[in-house]
Amino acid sequence: MSAAPKIVVVGSVAAGTSAAAKARRGSEDAEIVVYDRDADISYSGCGLPYYLGGEVESMDDLTPRDAAWFAQRYDIDVRTGREVTGVDAAARTVTVRDLATGTTSTDDYDELVLATGVSPVVPPLPGTDADGVFTLRTPSDARAIRTWIESRGVERAVVVGAGYIGLETAEQLVGRGLDVTVVEMEAHSMPRLDADVADRVDDELTEHGVELLTGAEVTAIEPADDGAARAVRVVGRDGAEHLVEAGLVVVAVGVRPNLDLARAAGVRVGDTGAIAVDRVGRTSVDHVWAVGDVAESFDLITGEPTWVPLGSTANKMGRIAGDALTGGDLEHRGILGTSIVRVFDLAVAQTGLTEDRARAAGFDPVVVHNIKPDRPAYLGGQEMLIKAVADRGTGRLLGAQIVGPSGVDKRVDVLATAITFGARAEDLFHLDLAYAPTFATTKDPVHYTGMALDGAVTDRAALVSSADLDRRRGGGETIQVVDVRSAKDRARSAVDDSVHIPLAELRGRAGELDPALPTVTYCNKGVTGNAGQNVLRGLGFADVANLSGGNTTYQRHVRGRGLPG
User: Where would I find the Rhodanese domain in this sequence (predicted)?
Assistant: First the structure.
């Protein structure tokens, strides 16, 4: 690298501008040029759904910086309305087209940074080119959708896809007073979550008036006489096709990396479908770097390449590459895919591996469903579900999913930090977390999660999930299931084929049970079930597990498999 390199960056959102700004901090001599085909730069893409609903009033709030700002603050030349159409890696040049004039030119570079991001996936369906059909990726998209709603007086909308963008969009459209249908091909919303967590998100959507069609596929968008969308044709779970009326369709089924320039440069694309890079962002081609959503990261737990396009990760990758470009020693340490989204009155968060992904990665997952309030009930505490996963062999904490109306962000960040530094289940109890009744319980939900997980890992307090109980029974295993709740609670609902012995009577009536049989105790959420488990173990029952998440989680599981609760 020359003493004063010329750095060309393609793309000016999170990763590209972070790379350019950090490179300038590392070198006052470098010439830094940033190209972007769009007029908006360094914008908050994650805030775009909230512009649709008016929670963000002005697009200026999401686009606070322009080319002049970067020139004044960093002496960086940001050239908007310029599309880089080609790369000659051997000559170290890029071809640039001025979108206003149509003219092309060539620019040279010493180091090239590809921060080309992603594009929304639009399925090849009839009608996707109709007016009123949108994706949501850029400020221009958000402006167009809001203008369409306001100018056409739209009353009904269909959102295709129930991931982060789809659900945020649905929430905001409901807030505008629209009737909203969400169509999702998978069996539940938020497919990155385990089903027994996502079902709570499904319930939240329906409780707020969203028509949620899961296990359903859009086959066409029907236009009206004026060419605008009027209905979406959907094939449901039962195989029947029907029309959902809509004056607006937002397609949010996912994104894919923009790889045209990467292919032109000859860089290697990884198995994830994104550009393969090392820990500072170098590609397989000398002097070509890749950062942000277009590039792979690696999983902090498994060490394997992964691709989770998030703004937080893009910012880190850009900063690291900008540092390395100017002689720094920062390196990317991997990601857990930590994320959080608001869905009406719920916060939905995850970090690390889900149960399904942990099993697929070769771990023997131990799982706890911990239902606890974020703070004491006397100060308005509200329950959250923490589903946490650890490795049975080592006790290593692998991941967590959390759903609740309050305090979710705090707990997921604590757990993400613990996983990052290799914590085991037993370590969680020993964390010195902040406590005051206005903020937390004396034993925080994180503490309880660690206690329950550690008990399950060491088999001092074995847990069984509702799905595992079903599976074992379905395989012909005889398991005695003991309900230790009150008669009042049992009258509302109960685990199939369970016997009722309230906890206060369990010692005196334990003779009614067979100590040689595998036994599962349960209560409403898990605490009293664990007390019953301890009583039976103390009386010589060798194989006693507590039902993870209690009857609350079991009844959700029952509904999920289509049986009466």
Answer: 475-563
